[in-house]
UniProtKB/TrEMBL annotation:
Keywords: Ubl conjugation pathway. This is F-box only protein 31 isoform X2. One of its GO terms (cellular component) is SCF ubiquitin ligase complex. One of its GO terms (biological process) is SCF-dependent proteasomal ubiquitin-dependent protein catabolic process. Pathway: Protein modification; protein ubiquitination.
């Protein structure tokens, strides 16, 4: 109870909740929570590929020691040498920045080589030798070079989870997804009328964080074949193309009706001259 009161009164109370770091195409998920006399910023990471069923992993990026309601100490938790001096600034509503004041604490005695090996072990649970695919090795190295240059000096934007509506097929919110050579990623599912959309919270150079990765038309049901046939890409393509053609036909039909209506409106009812009528009878 005491902790809740401290958190509510505390000047850093506005940074509690879910946030997305601005870190190029990679994004991420930060959860800021009260833990005893600390406010801790946990970076959530998806499980190691391909174990999508495993729980999320997390590591602390900063903590704020709440001595009293008006005074606090910010510590950077990045690296492997324990907490050290850091800073937090609120830029504007729904945005804050973290800064490390002792980035030498992030360095390792073995230099960049050791830092890369350690990062790889944490991020992928593997060594570079175990990742045979050359393209994948390049993607991983690129992510390390890009993300490590920030040294825990990051700007975060608040994440608003979509509310559950009675019409939703399932609970909207955060999901883990497999993205081939990019590993596992976190997406946010939301419903908008007759479409379901998934936006990336973590991303890659192919589809960056913040962009749409799925847009599903829920207006017409698709009956999937049994699991065995779902593995055949031709069968699925045929199914999707069939629905696509059906939609196309409906759109064309609607366009024809609209055209006829506009012709009738423009010209009024067709009046057959008396001479013509005579010829027909
Ligand atoms: Zn630091």
């Amino acid at each position: 109870m005491l902790c809740c009161c401290v958190a509510v009164l505390h000047p850093y109370r506005h940074i509690l909740g879910l946030w997305q770091p601005d870190i190029g195409p990679y994004g991420g998920l930060l959860n800021v929570v009260v833990d005893g006399l600390f406010i801790i910023g946990w970076m959530y990471l998806p499980p190691h590929d391909p174990r999508v069923e495993d729980p999320m992993r997390r590591r602390p990026l900063f903590r704020i020691h709440m001595w009293e309601s008006k005074k606090a100490t910010v510590e950077c938790m990045y690296g492997h040498k324990g907490p050290h001096k850091g800073d937090i600034q609120t830029v504007k509503k729904d945005e804050f920045s973290t800064k490390c004041n002792q980035t030498d604490h992030h360095r390792m005695p073995g230099g960049r080589q050791e830092e890369f090996r350690t990062w790889l072990e944490e991020e992928w649970g593997r060594t570079l030798e175990e990742i045979f695919h050359e393209h994948m090795q390049e993607l991983i190295l690129m992510k390390f070079i890009y993300t490590s240059q920030y040294d825990n000096c990051l700007t975060y934007r608040r994440i608003y989870l979509p509310p559950l509506m009675p019409s939703d097929l399932l609970q909207p919110g955060l999901f883990k997804g497999t993205y081939g050579s990019h590993g596992l990623e976190i997406v946010m599912l939301s419903f908008h009328g007759t479409s379901a959309r998934a936006t990336k919270l973590t991303g890659d150079p192919n589809v960056p964080a913040g962009q749409l990765t799925l847009d599903v038309d829920l207006s017409r049901p698709v009956v999937l074949p049994d699991l065995e046939h779902q593995r055949q890409i031709e069968e699925l393509s045929r199914l999707v193309l069939g629905v696509h053609e059906e939609v196309q036909r409906e759109v064309e039909q609607q366009a024809r009706v609209a055209l006829l209506q506009s012709v009738v409106q423009q010209w009024g009812p067709v009046v057959v001259p008396a001479a013509e009528r005579k010829r027909w009878t």
